[in-house]
Design a protein that fits this description.
Length: 44
Amino acid sequence: MGKGDKKTKRGKIHRGTFGTRRPRIKKKRSVESKININEKAKVK
């Protein structure tokens, strides 16, 4: 139960892998990418 264990968080950090114990942190999308600057406002 330590660095050599594949199933623990410490073992995942030691090996440099990811899994259910140590999921990847997803990057948040920036505001600029959500709002399309090139499109004009649609008039109803």
